[in-house]
């Protein structure tokens, strides 16, 4: 269970950051923000059950009874989010300690945006055979559209086209090298 796992201490995390290049620090910030967004989304999905406004289809509990498992899951997620935000603060201190600009690592104009309350999940709509359902579009968390989840290339890395071209060239080279008819990993 996740609550039994012991995370790395803040002091050890901060010490490990000293060995990482700036590009790895930037990726770690993106990873942490992505995880936070997923946990926020999960909490928003669990909230109606934790508050007793909804109950699972196969649950014997009345809809007005809070689901203790959901309450506990939200509490645990909030502790993990807090720990991740502390790690982002440690990365910020490391970045600024190196004389680099934190603005390039933020991805968002203001860290306060990370503390916003997650959007509530949409109300169910009529679905098939009288069962409630939601469309994929209406279930989409704001993190997918507000820039929290980002894709792109790492500075100094290859673009998608450059990577594709190099892989294709390497595959063409390997076609004649393989006498056994298999792929070597």
UniProtKB/TrEMBL annotation:
Residues 175-185 have a biased composition (Acidic residues). GO terms for biological process: proteasome regulatory particle assembly. InterPro entries: TMA17. This is Secondary alcohol dehydrogenase. Residues 161-174 have a biased composition (Basic and acidic residues). One of its GO terms (molecular function) is protein-macromolecule adaptor activity. It comes from Neoarthrinium moseri. Signal peptide: none annotated.
